[in-house]
Amino acid sequence: MGLITGLLTLPLAPVRGTVWLAERIQEQVEEELYDETAIRDGLLQLEAERQAGTMDERELAAAEDALIERLMAIRGLREEESYGGIG
To answer: Is the pLDDT of residue 59 over 60?
Structure first.
């Protein structure tokens, strides 16, 4: 980037910084969302809460369903990616 371009776009630096930060946050969220290990840990935590009796059975079932749906979606996406790479 040249000196003049740098000076002219200097007022946009906070916007570019904000966009960069938002992209990094989005990458981190997607990484955590699609991490099977985190989902398994969540299921283990729910089982511990069931044994401790700290959550209502309906709440536990709903939380388990949500985690299992996420896991199935992740595996479905990976299958689509693998089939997409073949053809």
So the answer is: yes
